[in-house]
Specification:
The chain is α+β, with helices and mostly antiparallel strands. The protein contains three helices and five strands; from the N terminus they run αβααββββ. Bound molecules: zinc ion. Zinc ion (ZN) binds next to loops.
């Protein structure tokens, strides 16, 4: 039976399932560069949930040999790039031309290859 009660703050999925989704997102992003919207369509969860998973993945990944690369959002009209944003989510408006045609940030996971050859 499916749970229909979608609380605003309560996570609707048990943690076990979240772990699976995170693992799934991690695996997919190692092969593809995707926006949160792509992922939300694919995983059938809300974009907001995708961002929460991505935040978690970003934090946990810092300790490992993989890391989440964020390709910043860009204004479709004037090409302004939202580089300074620390947030993962998509900005609403361009501060330069006030257009709301914003290309969303894209996400990809790259492995960090550690060289221990002593290059300097
Ligand atoms: Zn703009």
């Amino acid at each position: 039976m499916s749970e229909m009660g979608k609380g605003r703050k309560e996570p609707s999925l048990p943690i076990e399932r979240c772990e699976t989704i995170r693992q799934y997102i991690s695996a997919v992003l190692q092969e593809h560069t995707l926006s949160a919207k792509d992922m939300s369509t694919y995983l059938r969860i809300s974009e907001k949930d995708v961002y929460e998973h991505l935040e978690h993945i970003r934090k946990t990944m810092n300790k490992g040999s993989y890391h989440l690369v964020v390709i910043p959002a860009r204004c479709e009209r004037c090409d302004f790039v939202f580089r300074k944003r620390g947030k993962l989510s998509r900005p609403g408006k361009c501060p330069i031309c006030h257009s709301s045609l914003i290309l969303p940030p894209l996400f990809v996971i790259r492995s960090i290859v550690r060289r221990e050859t002593g290059e300097n």
